[in-house]
Amino acid sequence: MRTGLYPGTFDPITLGHIDIIRRSCALVDRLVIGVAINRDKGPMFSLEERVAMVQAEVAGLAEQSGTIIDVHPFENLLIDCAHDVGATILLRGLRAVADFEYEYQMVGMNRQMDASIETVFLMADVKYQPIASKLVKEIARLGGDVSKFVTPPVLAALRDRSGP
To answer: How does pLDDT run across 142-158, given as a tens digit for each residue?
Structure first.
């Protein structure tokens, strides 16, 4: 069974994330979505809320694709998380050249730690390239409309958290 790991903070999960998850399902038999516990980023949503959001958003994708999808919170090194869940493939979404530069460096470091784990980059669909969770949160906090960037349940959670 080919297991892939798609890590992120998913604070919140966006349509761009869902696009990468959907496309990743075609590449692996089992997809683990690693929800990072990153205290440095000061998440809007708790780990439990983010895990629940991701689980709700991907439930239908697992059924549609026939891919096993697990959601796994983690706080250790990405390579260690990959070992923990049995992943041999890291799946990463790219939106822009700046993403590539950072990800390229990460691949080099990860390969030094375990050369048997391959990284696969998926370019974000053109309509999702500008979407970043950080910007979605900022727009929502300032009362802007983020309905083009997230699903209705995530939109409701953002509105609840950000106020009217």
So the answer is: 999 999 999 999 999 99
Domain contains 55? yes
Q: Any idea which residues carry the catalytic annotation?
A: 17, 41, 95, 133
Domain count, the chain: 1
Query: Domain containing 17: what range?
Result: 3-126
In a domain, 145, yes or no: no
pLDDT digits (tens, 9 = 90+) for 84-103: 999 999 999 988 777 788 88
From CA 109, how far away is CA 79, in angstroms rounded? 10
**38 to 45, 83, 110: CA distances (angstroms):** 11, 19, 18
Question: Which residues on adjacent β-strands are paired with residue 92?
Answer: 121
Q: Determine, yes or no, domain membership for 144.
A: no
The CA distances from residue 51 to 6, 12, 26, 110, 143, in Å, are 13, 10, 22, 25, 25
Contact 15, 133 (CB under 8 A): no
Decide if 70 is inside a domain: yes
